[in-house]
């Protein structure tokens, strides 16, 4: 299916974008996408997507495409947010700040600039700055549960656990019960309150018995409490529910090695190697012997 765009007459920007999406090598992406700067039919959105596809491997070329997008659609907030990301990759701090300033001036009530700024500051290890940005975002989007949950996680990260739980509870009316219990369980895990975490994850499993993620976290909680049998049962159920994800078996293998169950770990490792042949490094790290 990925080869179909190669067989089409290529005179439209979306065809170049379709090929670029499945092209991993940055140099090839540049050759495909850079000409879109002069393409009369390319929209601002298409130029922004092309710039984003070049963001990591060719930020200078991405910036050229973005400037053309800004010329064609001067009032698009997305342009300023993407410029902030490009400038960050290029380590141009002043450009990053100017981009955020313009975005905020253009859309003072939009939470997206604050959300992006929080993401960047958290990535830099500035948790207090990220928390301030998330606080601004949640006041601009008071009914958005995703914003409230991100705010809660940052509160937890700086040790403000009671406020973190209050932020989760404030979003409860708009969350499915399973998601609510998952968030509370993750909060208790970060606090080291493993029995409370186990109870919340068990409630999440009760609300969503087909959720591989809920079974995975319940298994991890059992392991932290020293119940390896229950942990294995939950991790194998998580694996059964999501056979494409090696995470559950990898965690089980690590647990077995840590518990000294080397024969059981060898069987788990063989299962991982059989099913996930492209994940050699993950398997090696999960099933390695302690030094």
UniProtKB/TrEMBL annotation:
Q: Which SUPFAM superfamilies match?
A: TPR-like
Q: Which domain of life is it from?
A: Bacteria
List the GO terms this entry assigns under cellular component, sorted alphabetically: extracellular exosome
Query: In residue terms, where are the TPR repeats?
Result: 178-211, 212-245
Asked if the keyword Repeat belongs to this entry, the reply reads yes
**A Pfam family per the record:** TPR_19
**Gene3D superfamilies to which the protein is assigned, alphabetical:** Tetratricopeptide repeat domain
Name of the featured protein: Tetratricopeptide repeat protein
- Name the species this protein comes from: Hyalangium minutum
């Amino acid at each position: 299916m990925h080869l179909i765009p190669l067989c089409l007459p290529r005179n439209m920007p979306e065809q170049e974008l379709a090929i670029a999406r499945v092209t991993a090598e940055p140099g090839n992406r540049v050759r495909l996408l850079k000409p879109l700067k002069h393409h009369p039919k390319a929209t601002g959105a298409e130029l922004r997507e092309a710039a984003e596809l070049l963001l990591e491997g060719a930020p200078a070329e991405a910036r050229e495409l973005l400037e053309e997008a800004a010329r064609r659609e001067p009032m698009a907030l997305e342009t300023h947010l993407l410029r902030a990301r490009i400038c960050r990759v290029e380590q141009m701090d002043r450009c990053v700040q100017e981009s955020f300033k313009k975005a905020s001036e253009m859309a003072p009530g939009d939470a997206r600039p604050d959300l992006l700024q929080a993401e960047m500051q958290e990535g830099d290890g500035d948790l207090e700055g990220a928390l301030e940005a998330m606080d601004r975002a949640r006041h601009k989007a008071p009914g958005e549960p995703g914003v409230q949950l991100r705010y809660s996680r940052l509160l937890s990260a700086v040790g403000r656990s009671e406020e973190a739980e209050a932020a989760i509870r404030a979003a409860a009316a708009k969350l499915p019960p399973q998601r609510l219990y998952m968030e509370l369980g993750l909060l208790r895990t970060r606090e080291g309150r493993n029995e409370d975490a186990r109870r919340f994850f068990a409630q999440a499993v009760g609300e969503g018995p087909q959720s591989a993620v809920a079974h995975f976290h319940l298994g991890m909680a059992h392991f932290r409490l020293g119940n390896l049998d229950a942990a294995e049962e939950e991790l194998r159920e998580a694996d059964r529910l999501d056979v494409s994800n090696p995470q559950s078996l990898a965690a089980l293998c690590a647990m077995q090695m840590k518990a000294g169950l080397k024969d059981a770990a060898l069987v788990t490792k063989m299962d991982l190697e059989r099913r996930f042949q492209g994940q050699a490094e993950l398997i090696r790290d999960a099933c390695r012997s302690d030094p």
